[in-house]
């Protein structure tokens, strides 16, 4: 089996993952996990600074009170408009309407396209960004360009302030009818360069709950040429899609054209996390545990933050927001050393942890 690429699983089983690509095929992006090591030779930025994706580990996160909730303009696209969905040979991409934009970033950014990254059916990892080393099943990127300074995405993509990408982490859960508005068309874009029209819908439906909680940092495109031109907003809370929907994403498409005698499955099109030297990720939320509770018999959300050295003993600062009153209240509750935060009882019932 000299012309087959052997892949050793963690279990020790050796399976044939795919046929070794022909020389002709190596002209492509070569998005295999081992392929990205070769990117810097042809695309120097890929070996440079401010590279993405990264792992959001606790010691690089810094709360920033200036991070406002984003505003989404024109995201509700009427069904009379149509988006073009295309298999570009390394992902599935949907062109967005130039009437869509995002505000509350340093500039106004206009939408260009969205696309996805995913793994394969044999593993649970497919996201590009990770949280404390944990991968999610897949990741959606909604790409915008700085339309205040640049006439189009081509002019913006290699500029330091050129792009803003919104990233949504995807995990397994119930069937997601909003994602299905894209996913049900995968069968029409199985092969490279195939296109299909998708009726307009509200792109906001693809975003997670609690949109005001996100990670923000300056990074890069995660595919060649890896320009360090992206202001990243990665939403803290994932969106759920069903196991069947994830499987469709992982199995429906090929990197190759329909007449290629050696079809190459479109799998594992995520880049590995990059080094993150002397940089910080700014977060719009207080790192902490999130609890659901009822306070004063009204539904509310409580966010409990472990505060080190608060009055020289471990403490929890609870920030709770009543949904009904739309009013914010702050409380603090001191814990005894070693006490679990869920044991705190004030007039709050911190019974069910939700995230
Ligand atoms: Zn991407």
From TrEMBL:
Residues 332-342 have a biased composition (Polar residues). Residues 331-355 are annotated as: Disordered. Its cofactor is Zn(2+). Gene3D superfamilies: Alpha carbonic anhydrase (3.10.200.10). Residues 22-285 form the Alpha-carbonic anhydrase domain. It is an enzyme of class 4 (lyase). GO terms for cellular component: plasma membrane. Keywords: Glycoprotein, Lyase, Metal-binding, Zinc. GO terms for molecular function: carbonate dehydratase activity; zinc ion binding. Its EC number is 4.2.1.1. CDD domains: alpha_CA_XII_XIV (cd03126). It catalyses: hydrogencarbonate + H(+) = CO2 + H2O. InterPro entries: CA_dom (IPR001148), CA_dom_sf (IPR036398), Carbonic_anhydrase_a-class (IPR023561), Carbonic_anhydrase_a-class_CS (IPR018338). Residues 343-355 have a biased composition (Basic and acidic residues). Pfam families: Carb_anhydrase. Reversible hydration of carbon dioxide. Belongs to the alpha-carbonic anhydrase family. This is Carbonic anhydrase.
């Amino acid at each position: 089996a000299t012309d087959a690429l052997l892949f050793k699983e963690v279990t020790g089983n050796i399976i044939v993952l795919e046929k070794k690509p022909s020389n002709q095929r190596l002209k492509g992006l070569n998005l295999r996990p081992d392929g990205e090591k070769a990117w810097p030779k042809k695309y120097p930025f890929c070996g440079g600074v401010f590279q993405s994706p990264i792992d959001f580990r606790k010691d690089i996160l810094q709360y920033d009170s200036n991070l406002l909730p984003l505003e989404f303009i024109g995201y509700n696209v009427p069904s009379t408009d149509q988006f073009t969905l295309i298999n570009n040979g390394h992902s599935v991409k949907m062109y967005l309407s130039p009437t869509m934009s995002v505000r509350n970033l340093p500039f106004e950014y206009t939408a260009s396209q969205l696309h996805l990254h995913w793994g394969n059916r044999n593993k649970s990892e497919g996201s590009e960004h990770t949280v404390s080393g944990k991968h999610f099943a897949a990741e959606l990127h909604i790409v915008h360009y700085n339309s205040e300074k640049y006439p189009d995405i081509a002019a913006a993509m290699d500029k330091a302030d050129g792009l803003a990408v919104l990233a949504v982490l995807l995990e397994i859960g119930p069937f997601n009818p909003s994602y299905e508005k894209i996913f049900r068309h995968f069968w029409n874009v199985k092969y490279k360069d195939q296109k299909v029209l998708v009726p307009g819908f509200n792109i906001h439906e693809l975003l997670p709950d609690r949109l005001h909680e996100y990670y923000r940092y300056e990074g890069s495109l995660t595919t060649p040429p890896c320009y360090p031109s992206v202001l990243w907003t990665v939403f803290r809370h994932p969106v759920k899609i069903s196991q069947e929907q994830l499987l469709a994403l992982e199995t429906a498409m090929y990197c190759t054209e329909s007449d290629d005698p050696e079809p190459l499955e479109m799998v594992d099109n995520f880049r590995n996390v990059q080094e993150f030297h002397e940089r910080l990720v700014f977060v719009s939320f207080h790192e902490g545990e999130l609890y659901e509770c009822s306070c004063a018999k009204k539904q509310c959300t409580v966010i409990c933050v472990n505060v080190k050295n608060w009055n020289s003993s471990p403490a929890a600062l609870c920030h709770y927001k009543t949904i009904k009153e739309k009013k914010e209240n702050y409380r603090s509750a001191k814990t005894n050393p070693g006490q679990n935060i869920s044991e705190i009882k004030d007039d709050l019932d911190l019974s069910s942890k939700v995230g």
